[in-house]
Write a structure and sequence with these properties.
The complex is a heterotrimer of chains A (187), B (436) and C (256). Chain A contains five helices and nine strands, in the order H-H-H-E-E-E-H-H-E-E-E-E-E-E. By secondary structure, chain A is of the alpha+beta class. In chain B, the strands form four sheets. A two-stranded antiparallel sheet of chain B has the order 1-2. In chain B, helix 4 packs across helix 5 and helix 5 packs across helix 10. Chain B is globular. Classes of the chains: A alpha+beta (187), B mainly alpha (436), C mainly alpha (256).
């Protein structure tokens, strides 16, 4: 299928009378054919990106009024768990009272929340994708009273920041907005 | 195969690899040095076109399979989701769906070329037989693929074709139930058809490889149908036939693309955009165009065949005729023993060939019509009808289809004169010598 | 050479007589309308699609579902995101179960399928004297010459011929197979108030809704034709190049 000219033992193939034209045609048709093959491969690979209906479903609304102070709710967003945590005063204070220069992924608590009492993070450990424990009342919240990943022992604090263990990044804060005081829309 | 030692001017990793795995020797031998008759015409393009079509079908099919769901409740919608929501999904599906038609068009021409130029004759009988196997596998693959969208035609096509097996005496019904995995075409049928539709193209790839191995044993036949006599009869496959095949591919892709982009549903049936409904059969169920000749042969047998000791009922007779119409192709090298290959040098066979082609195409048209309606066809925009019932036309054509193979060819083998043949491909002086 | 021409002509004859699918006999071919989306560079007329959607929404949707179309898809018709949100908000969809385990109604969102008039086929039949109003998502592709057929059918209501006895609840339509259709003529002149200056006639309604349903059946039609033009140009150029290259390569071969 390749139009590339390879060495041939046959004299007729090796003795073009007009080498410039042969070369131009060979290169031009070869280049166009390669471009065509690449162009044909593109829709196949493109089809693997999220489809229109998947993208259209990528928002989730959460009613915050049902979450008491100190408790958390896990909701599904884009097939992943999102932790919505109603933080206590102590937890907010603990999150703020950290020297961020010591952290693996330095971020202040302020940039991670829109309202201090509500922490919204994607509940997926930034190490290798496990879901950390800490949502339930009796769960192991780890050394820093946030979340603890059972897979490889990463510990997150009450702001969802990585404090200990192999995870390189803080828990991701998804894009979200307060529609009103008691409703947020994630995505 | 590699009796000649590959002696590339290249050194280094190529030489290292070739010593351990002779891929470059193989390519050089089978593509570069492979001596090919220099007089092949454009009808010889269709073999490589079929091969490339197979690759395109597997590629598009693979990506469709990633989005398709083989469940009766979801199949139709998953196809619609491909058409509407998956990025470029409509393109991949239309390429694949029209590709089935393109594949058959190419393969039919490939087969007809073999018939005309005697490519099935010694020493290429096995090459021919492997081709018939590929054709059978293609038919099975296409049939099962058509079931997957789970439209009305999918469902009723599956029902009718699987029911063919009920014609087998005694065990027929058991076989049909086994094929269905239930008491009608339903979810188990759909899922197994999907699995088999995915598998069979790879079986085809396997047989295609054997087909090519058999081809390279004696090399291509050619329009003169005579053997290669001297070195100057041949040219290396590359670059001559690679570039010729590429050019043919360009023309072919233009035709394929024209269907995909401007008439994507022209070769399909509107009823397949209605979800399968096991309670309602559409008014006219017709197979895809490439099955019509065989469907017509199936329907042509509308009478019982008394054999004295046993009566073959019409239903079984039709099934036997349909399968027989393909199986007879296996016997072709032994039915036609005339020493001359190419119809160019066979004064009688040349005409018989075209009557057979006309019978085959006529069968295709009768397959599209209802058995009792008057037969007609559209000829350059004009409806031509002779007022003969479709079933009658189908029966005459079916008779001729078989009679050419079973009657005419053995007779011609004996009575058709052996005319003067060219001395060689590069020296086409007619001699009275036989082409063998 | 003569042989080649002979075989080429013969093959041309063979393929010129393409099989034709059996028609229903008495069915009338619908009149051909000059659609904007026809031809190699065909495009939908968005104004027309919006009118067609309005007709669907105000008339057809009382019986017919459009189950493959979500509100978000209507952005193809030229609606903005806010308009679609407002439009979706007029519909209620069943969602759930909620935390109490109950299904609940909520306003539709753009990602929702346009809710159909009936919960299921049984409910649809019960409400329509046993007849099932078809889902219209694919009707333009599920009928031969669909766009013209839909348009013709909607304009094809007439008084039955004298020799034809119409059963109760059936209506005469000259474009419907068998001419007896359970759907009464859906339109009368002026029934739908257009926002633009298009004529408010049965013919215009039928044409607009047929265009809308063609879009619904094949929303990628415009993309397809536009891409087709580029692909065909590319393939034809490539083929010409390959032909020239092939001719050049083969020039030296004698006796060919």
């Amino acid at each position: 299928m390749a139009t590339k000219k390879t060495s041939s033992s046959h004299p007729a193939a090796d003795a073009p009378k007009d080498p410039t034209k042969r070369d131009f045609l060979a290169m031009a048709s070869g280049a166009v054919a390669v471009a065509g093959a690449a162009g044909a491969a593109w829709p196949l690979l493109d089809s693997l990106r999220p489809a229109a209906d998947v993208l259209a479903l990528s928002t989730t609304e959460v009613d915050l009024s049902k979450i008491p102070v100190g408790q958390s709710l896990t909701v599904m967003w884009r097939g992943k768990p999102v932790f919505v945590k109603h933080r206590t005063e102590e937890e907010i204070a603990a999150a703020k009272d950290v020297n961020i220069s010591q952290l693996p992924d330095p971020e202040t608590d302020d940039v991670r929340v829109k309202k201090p009492e509500w922490l919204v993070t994607v509940g997926v450990c930034t190490h290798l994708g496990c879901v950390p424990t800490g949502q339930g009342m009796t769960d192991n919240k780890g050394e820093f009273n946030g979340w603890f990943c059972p897979c490889h022992g990463s510990a997150y604090d009450t702001s969802g920041r990585i404090r200990k263990g192999p995870a390189p990044k803080n828990l991701v804060v998804p894009p979200y907005a307060f529609l009103n005081d008691t409703t947020i829309k994630i995505g | 195969m590699a009796s000649t030692v590959y002696n590339p001017n290249t050194k280094g990793w190529k030489e290292w690899l070739d010593h351990r795995l002779p891929v470059f020797t193989f390519m050089d031998h089978e593509l570069n040095k492979y001596p090919t008759p220099k007089n092949l015409n454009y009808w010889w393009n269709f073999g490589s076109l079929a091969g490339i079509t197979l690759v395109i079908m597997i590629m598009t099919g693979l990506f469709l399979a990633m989005h398709y769901t083989s469940s009766t409740t979801l199949a139709f919608n998953s196809v619609e989701r491909i058409m509407r929501d998956v990025n470029g999904g409509w393109l991949i599906r239309y390429v694949h769906a029209n590709g089935a038609s393109m594949f058959f068009m190419v393969v039919y021409i490939h087969i007809f070329r073999g018939l005309y130029f005697g490519s099935y004759k010694p020493p290429r009988e096995v090459l021919w037989a492997l081709g018939v196997v590929i054709f059978l596998l293609m038919m099975a693959t296409a049939f099962m693929g058509y079931v997957l969208p789970w439209g009305q035609m999918s469902f009723w096509g599956a029902t009718v074709i699987t029911n063919l097996f009920s014609a087998i005496p005694v065990i027929g019904d058991t076989i049909v139930t086994w094929l269905w995995g239930g008491f009608s075409v339903d979810n188990p049928t759909l899922t197994r058809f999907f699995a088999l539709h995915f598998l069979m193209p790879f079986l085809i790839v396997g047989v295609v490889i054997l087909h090519i191995v058999a081809l390279h044993r004696f090399g291509s036949n050619n329009p003169l149908g005579i053997d290669i006599k001297e070195k100057k009869d041949t040219i290396p496959f590359h670059p001559y036939y690679t570039i010729k095949d590429m050019y043919g591919l360009g023309v072919f892709l233009c035709i394929w693309a024209a269907f995909v982009f401007y008439a994507p549903n022209y070769l399909g049936h509107p009823d397949n955009y209605t979800p399968a409904n096991p309670m309602v059969t559409p008014a006219h169920i017709v197979p895809e165009w490439y099955f019509l000749p065989f469907y017509a042969i199936l329907r042509a047998v509308d009478f019982n065949i008394p054999l004295g000791f046993y009566t073959i009922e019409a239903k079984l007779g039709g099934v036997i005729a349909m399968f027989g119409s393909i199986l007879v192709l296996f016997a072709l090298p032994w039915l036609d023993k005339h020493p001359v290959r190419s119809a160019r040098f066979r004064p009688y066979y040349k005409w018989i060939y075209w009557t057979w082609i006309i019978a085959f195409v006529t069968l295709g048209q009768t397959g599209a019509l209802l058995p009792d309606q008057p037969f007609y066809f559209i000829f350059f925009g004009h409806e031509v009808s002779f007022g003969i019932k479709t079933i009658t036309v189908a029966q005459i054509s079916t008779f001729w289809y078989f009679f050419v193979f079973l009657g005419v060819m053995p007779i011609l083998s004996k009575i058709e004169p052996v005319k003067a043949l060219p001395y060689s491909i590069s020296n086409p002086v007619l001699t009275a010598k036989e082409g063998k | 050479m003569k042989k080649t021409i002979f075989s080429l002509v013969a093959s041309a004859l063979v393929f010129a007589s393409v099989p034709v699918f059996a028609g229903g006999g008495a069915v009338l071919e619908p009149p051909q309308h000059p659609w904007s989306f026809e031809g190699v560079t065909g495009k939908f007329d968005k104004q027309q699609l919006q009118r067609g959607f309005q007709v669907y929404k105000e008339v057809c949707s009382t019986c017919h579902a459009l189950s493959k179309i979500a509100f978000r898809n209507l952005s193809d018709l030229g609606y903005s995101e806010d308009e679609l949100k407002a439009l979706a908000g007029q519909y209620k969809v069943i969602d759930g179960p909620n935390d109490a385990g109950d299904m609940f109604e909520r306003p539709a969102r753009p990602s929702d399928i346009i809710p159909g008039p009936f919960a299921n086929e049984k409910a649809a039949r019960a409400a329509n004297g046993g007849a099932y109003p078809l889902d219209l998502s694919l009707i333009a592709k599920a009928r031969h010459d669909g766009s013209n057929y839909v348009r013709a059918l909607l304009m094809g209501y007439e008084n039955a011929p004298h020799d034809m006895k119409m059963p109760d609840g059936m209506y005469y339509n000259k474009y419907f197979a068998g001419h007896q259709i359970a759907m009464p003529s859906p339109f009368s002149d002026g029934a739908v108030d257009y926002q633009d200056n298009s004529p408010e006639t049965v013919q215009q309604y039928a044409t607009d809704v047929a265009a809308f349903l063609t879009w619904a059946a094949e929303p990628k039609l415009e993309t397809r034709k536009a891409l087709g033009l580029r692909v065909m140009t590319f393939l034809l150029s490539l083929t010409v190049l390959l032909y020239l290259y092939k001719r050049k390569v083969w020039k030296d071969v004698k006796g060919h």
